[in-house]
Amino acid sequence: MNLSLEHIRLVQNSWDGVEPMIDRMAELFYAHLFELNPHVKTLFKADMQQQGRRIMDMIGSVVRHLNAVDKMLPSLQESGARHENYGVLPEDYDTVAAAFLYALQQCLGDTLTAEVKNAWVDVFSWMTQIMLEVTDQSQ
Q1: Is the model's pLDDT at 89 over the cut of 50?
Q2: Is residue 134 scored above 80 in pLDDT?
Q3: pTM for this model (two decimals)
Q4: Distance between CA atoms of 103 and 137, rounded to whole angstroms?
Q5: Domain count of the fold of the chain
């Protein structure tokens, strides 16, 4: 991963701003995800509030470990394999990133500068790459 120390700092600092409103972040994320791509709603069988907490916990864990990404590789790889089994398509990852950025904008407002947003795009691109590499290997 080629995240600069500055990008890591920007993502971690912005996540600190999101954590107090994590349930709202999850709610906005899923609402926008289902708006952008209604077919993915059929992939969710669990309670959406619990699902929201799980994804935000996973993202929070990634954010906290950006300085030691090797610690996150196994869990991201496992997540990629699970998502493939759930029926998530490679193109769905772009929609997830777009929905996340939308929710982030709603929660952070003006503090989500272009620089912070670009840092998040880099993090999501890296996460997606790791998760999809596992699915590529299983084919």
Answers
A1: yes
A2: no
A3: 0.88
A4: 32
A5: 1
